[in-house]
UniProtKB/TrEMBL annotation:
Gene Ontology biological-process entries: androgen biosynthetic process; cell differentiation; sex differentiation
Purpose: Converts testosterone into 5-alpha-dihydrotestosterone and progesterone or corticosterone into their corresponding 5-alpha-3-oxosteroids. It plays a central role in sexual differentiation and androgen physiology.
A Gene Ontology term for the protein's cellular component: endoplasmic reticulum membrane
Main subcellular localisation: endoplasmic reticulum
Catalytic activity: 5alpha-pregnane-3,20-dione + NADP(+) = progesterone + NADPH + H(+); a 3-oxo-5alpha-steroid + NADP(+) = a 3-oxo-Delta(4)-steroid + NADPH + H(+); androst-4-ene-3,17-dione + NADPH + H(+) = 5alpha-androstan-3,17-dione + NADP(+); 17beta-hydroxy-5alpha-androstan-3-one + NADP(+) = testosterone + NADPH + H(+)
Family designation: Belongs to the steroid 5-alpha reductase family.
Keyword Lipid metabolism: yes
Protein's name according to its UniProt entry: 3-oxo-5alpha-steroid 4-dehydrogenase (NADP(+))
Transmembrane domains' residue ranges: 21-40, 60-80, 118-138, 150-169, 212-235
Family annotation (InterPro entries): 3-oxo-5-alpha-steroid_4-DH, 3-oxo-5_a-steroid_4-DH_C, SRD5A/TECR
EC number annotated for this UniProt entry: 1.3.1.22
3-oxo-5-alpha-steroid 4-dehydrogenase C-terminal domain ranges (all copies): 117-265
Length: 265
């Protein structure tokens, strides 16, 4: 792995420049995605359409598309001589990243109950993004991120870490509520209740957005900010679409419940 990377980049400065460029490109992609999502919902789940390619089993799709976000970074740690791996702030930030994607790639897909197939286009784009972002986040943290002494006690790191943990727990709990909406043998959609769903329709999305916003605050890099920004753009639109769908589908849907931000929006 290290030999391959040295072949691609002649110097550390060159690779760091490329990582920065990839971050800015991710933000541009987020803005382009925002414009597209103004006119089209993300084609998955209840919004699935065959015009976006042949269907892929939802469990298979989730497992394969998320796996690179875990395996690509893991290979960078094991075989690419990570010079920052013994630095505490870097270790903790890498731990946050791997904690999320271990659950998302190796546990979450096998907990899915039912679920509509994923169109191939959505599956392929998610697969490519996980490779892209996995390399970007972990290569920077394991090789280049340089934090001042005592950074783990800095208010930004402490606040960001707490937000990451809050978001991660919210995301896990919200996914648990969604999985258990139907009893065995039941089909169709139901109104989610409990937890943060009492306040917003997109509780699972809000959790993940808070998670990566906290990660970006703790990491203080353009790379982590780009990821948090991209996550916000995509998941906020999903939350709004879900909220509108629930209001149209269920006459008794709680009118006080917001789309994404409790009591606000």
């Amino acid at each position: 792995m290290e030999i391959i990377l040295k072949t691609l980049f002649s110097s550390k400065e060159e690779e760091l420049y490329i990582l920065d460029c990839l971050s800015y490109l991710m933000m541009l992609m987020a803005l382009a995605t925002f414009l597209v999502l103004l006119f089209q919902n993300v084609p998955y789940g209840r919004y699935t359409s065959r015009k976006y390619g042949f269907p892929v089993n939802v469990k298979v799709a989730w497992f394969i598309q998320e796996l690179p976000a875990f395996l690509v970074p893991l290979s960078l740690i094991l075989w690419a001589s990570p010079v920052k791996i013994n630095v505490l702030p870097n270790q903790l930030l890498l731990g946050m990243y791997f904690c999320h994607y271990f659950q998302r790639s190796l546990i979450y897909p096998f907990l899915i109950r039912g679920g509509k197939p994923t169109p191939f286009a959505s599956f392929a784009l998610a697969f490519v993004f996980c490779i892209y972002n996995g390399y970007l986040q972990v290569r920077y943290l394991s090789h280049y991120a340089d934090y001042p002494e005592g950074w783990v006690s800095h208010p930004c790191f402490i606040t960001g870490s707490c937000l990451w943990l809050l978001g991660w727990i919210t995301n896990l709990h919200s996914d648990h509520i969604l999985r258990n909406l139907r009893r065995p043998g039941e089909t169709g959609y139901k109104i989610p209740k409990g937890g943060v769903f009492e306040y917003v329709s997109g509780a699972n999305f809000l959790g993940e957005m808070v998670e990566w916003a906290g990660f970006a605050l703790a990491a203080q890099s353009i790379h982590s900010f780009a990821f948090a920004f991209f996550t916000f753009i995509v998941l906020s639109r999903r939350a709004i679409a879900h909220h509108e769908w629930y209001l149209e589908k269920f006459e008794d849907y709680p009118k006080s419940r917001k789309a994404l931000i409790p009591f606000v929006f």
